[in-house]
Amino acid sequence: MFIQVLKSKIHRVTVTEANLNYIGSITIDQDLIDAAGIMPGERVFIVDNNNGERLDTYVIAGERGSGVVCLNGAAARKVQPGDIVIIMAYAMMQPEEAKTFKPSVIFPEERTNRLPK
Asked: pLDDT per residue over 23-70, tens digit each?
């Protein structure tokens, strides 16, 4: 049996853009996805702390160091620029592995979405 366990988390970043006319996904600064251990194309779950919306989509790598967090396509209707979101990715694993697994959790600066120095 496999269970889903939190693998990666980008905790409390500020949405910088919402692009309704894009095909879909979330664009995230490459520095953030690298630090969190998230891959381009990977499925992520997004929680909006401002309005309670919860959605899932896939990641597109944004410009490194830009601080970009942009919801694209239909998700742009659920999250607005300036909202604070939490981005999470999960992994499937055996319960025995899950007992010792430690997720990668990062805490970027909310206003700039950059990693603390």
From this structure: 889 999 999 999 999 999 999 999 999 999 999 999 999 999 999 999
Task: Give the model's pLDDT for residue 111.
Answer: 87
Each residue of 24-52: b (16+ CB within 10 Å) or e?
Answer: ebbbbbbbbbebbbbeeeeebebebeeee
Residue 18: beta bridge partners? 71
Q: What is the DSSP letter of 32?
A: H
Query: Rounded to whole angstroms, how far apart are CA atoms 38 and 21?
Result: 25
Amino acid at 68: V
User: φ and ψ at 97, to 5 degrees?
Assistant: -65, -40
Residue 107 pLDDT:
97
Q: Please list the residues that pair with 19 across neighbouring strands.
A: 72
Scan for tokens 């909310």, then name that residue: 110
**Tokens describing residue 54:** 């919860």
For the chain, domains (ranges, CATH) are 3-93 (2.40.40.20)
**Residues tagged active-site:** 25, 58
